[in-house]
Amino acid sequence: MTYPPIMHRPAFEAFVRTLPAATIVHQWRDDSVAKVGGKIFCLLDRDPGEIWLKVPDMSFDLMIEMDGIRPAPYFARAGWVAISHESALGEDDLRAYITEAHRLVASKLSRRLRSELGLDAP
């Protein structure tokens, strides 16, 4: 099975950078970690090739029942899933979940920080 392009570092990082005030850092095992306002909203775990991201509580319970998706190690208690290339989700689905993770985390930032980052558009 081939990986959806978004699961490769260049495509993942390029997409994340299209989201408002999103940044990428390489940390831990040189994973691509996406942040907004200094808070992580998703990451590309290059080994074993998974996208880890924050999802709404209801989605978490449903998603971890799907093949190729599991609770994200260390992050599951905060509602994160790890989506492998073996899941049935396509590239458009992955992009939508990354966008939602960004929105969820950005919405928890302080009003002042959201304003500084230009996230509270009129």
UniProtKB/TrEMBL annotation:
SUPFAM superfamilies tied to this protein: YjbR-like (SSF142906)
Entry keyword annotation includes DNA-binding: yes
Keyword DNA-binding belongs to the record: yes
Domain of life: Bacteria
Keyword annotations: DNA-binding
GO molecular function, one term: DNA binding
Any matching Pfam family: YjbR
Protein name as it appears in the record: Predicted DNA-binding protein, MmcQ/YjbR family
Species classification: Bacteria, Pseudomonadati, Pseudomonadota, Alphaproteobacteria, Hyphomicrobiales
